[in-house]
Amino acid sequence: MDGKPRSDETPETQSPANEAGEASSTDLPEDREAASDGEVTRLQTELEVARRRVNELARAYQDLNKDREEFKQRLTRERERMIDVERGNVAGTLLEAIDELDLALASSQQDTSPLAQGVRMIRDSLLAKAQATGIERIQMVGRPYDPNVAEAVDMEITPVQDDDQKVVAEFRAGYRLKDRIIRPARVKVARYVAPAQA
């Protein structure tokens, strides 16, 4: 208390503490290195785990994005298909009107009266409007018969072998919308029969 060293604290008792202090100060850098190496290893392991998790999340996000884009494309294709189906249904009514006008004009092929000309103009206008919506009239006469495009409702015997299975007449026109047949044609098909030999 008075500033003098106490009797129980001798220089001998002080030196071992100092030696221990010196010894511990020399051991600290090695302990710190070992602790530091352990900490670095632990942090590297955590970093690797975090990287793997980020990669998994990035892949999951990419997959989700890809699925979303595919869904949007599928939805767009389905919507377009439904619009085409409805357009085909509406076109069916329009095509029936065109067929009736074709029948009226067929009975008066050479008629040049104003009434026949008016009917012809209406028919051509309706056909042009149908074609403007993407409906295409299928030309069948003179082509090989295709059951996917036309219905054979009549047959005609032909002695010409090259005309076998060709469409020779059209009773009702066929129409397609894009790649889909909205109404097959009704046609007469030639059938080759070898001439009888006498």
From TrEMBL:
It is found in: Cytoplasm. Residues 1-45 are annotated as: Disordered. It comes from the Bacteria. SUPFAM superfamilies: Coiled-coil domain of nucleotide exchange factor GrpE, Head domain of nucleotide exchange factor GrpE. Pfam families: GrpE. GO terms for biological process: protein folding. GO terms for molecular function: adenyl-nucleotide exchange factor activity; protein homodimerization activity; protein-folding chaperone binding; unfolded protein binding. The keyword Chaperone applies. Residues 12-27 have a biased composition (Polar residues). GO terms for cellular component: cytoplasm. Keywords: Chaperone, Cytoplasm, Stress response. Participates actively in the response to hyperosmotic and heat shock by preventing the aggregation of stress-denatured proteins, in association with DnaK and GrpE. It is the nucleotide exchange factor for DnaK and may function as a thermosensor. Unfolded proteins bind initially to DnaJ; upon interaction with the DnaJ-bound protein, DnaK hydrolyzes its bound ATP, resulting in the formation of a stable complex. GrpE releases ADP from DnaK; ATP binding to DnaK triggers the release of the substrate protein, thus completing the reaction cycle. Belongs to the GrpE family. Homodimer. PANTHER family: GRPE PROTEIN, GRPE PROTEIN HOMOLOG, MITOCHONDRIAL. This is Protein GrpE. The lineage of its organism: Bacteria, Pseudomonadati, Myxococcota, Myxococcia, Myxococcales.
